[in-house]
Amino acid sequence: MTCVSEAHVGLIRVLTTDDEETLGAHGRVLEAAFPWMRTISRCIPDQPQGIFDDNTEQLAVPKIIRLAEEMADGLDALAITCAADPGLVEVRKVVSIPVVGAGSSGAAVAAAQGNRVAVLGLEGAVPRPIKSILGRRFLNFYSVPGMRTACDLLSGQGKQAVVDVARQALKDGADVILFGCCAMSSMGLAPLLRLECGVPVVDPVVAAGAMLWEAIRSWRA
């Protein structure tokens, strides 16, 4: 078996920011969980609210493709750290390294752990890749009231609201909780919810790291 001792991974962020702390949040999550990983984070331009509906996703996809092409040289893999996996299919066609999406990665890990997966996310619809992969294991989508964009969650007002909807999901019979917005990863909410809820809580960014390990290992084999 090929062992991944060190790998350089590019993270594509869909929230435009010039704040290094915000930009590097997902990289810190991944490097803490996977010490072999070295991350480089870049964000697409002109989307300070990120992706929160079909229109903003459509605007983001060509930017994601261009950024992926710019970043790919010299990296072992790329990850699109957005639960909607915007541009994932298209990026895989234009680069020659593994590419994973946080949404599909999180759904795969959640489906492996339970049969009634509750997805927590922004106001709106459940990200399509997540619902597709979960299939019959999808319990319901729980939107966090008043949280329309990732910036709303990151404002500091979203933490208790996320806890409240997670408790409702438990009452409805959830046996796994999956974040349907990667801003929840940036907020570091998974440990808190595991204590509050007593069920597996899947962070899609960490799940993407697990998929990256397998993708890079397979690529090098």
How is the secondary structure organized here?
Elements lengths: L6 E7 L6 H4 L1 H9 L3 E7 L10 H18 L5 E4 L7 H7 L4 E3 H10 L5 E5 L6 H7 L3 E6 L6 H8 L1 H13 L4 E4 L3 H4 L3 H8 L3 E2 L1 H17 L1
Parallel strand pairs: 1-2, 1-3, 3-4, 5-6, 5-7, 7-8
Question: In words, what does this structure look like?
Answer:
This protein has 221 residues and is an alpha/beta fold. The chain has 2 domains: 7-101 and 206-220, Rossmann fold, CATH 3.40.50; 104-203, 3-Layer(aba) Sandwich (Rossmann fold), CATH 3.40.50.1860. 48% of the residues lie in helices and 17% in strands. The protein has a 4-stranded parallel β-sheet with strand order 2-1-3-4, with helices on both faces. Helix 5 (102-111) packs parallel to helix 6 (128-134), helix 5 (102-111) crosses helix 11 and helix 8 packs parallel to helix 10 (190-197). The longest helix is centred in the first third of the chain and has 18 residues, at 54-71. The radius of gyration is 16 Å and the shape is globular. The protein starts with 6 loop residues before the first strand and ends with a helix. This is Asp/Glu/hydantoin racemase. It holds the Pfam family Asp_Glu_race. It comes from Moorella mulderi DSM 14980. One of its GO terms (molecular function) is amino-acid racemase activity.
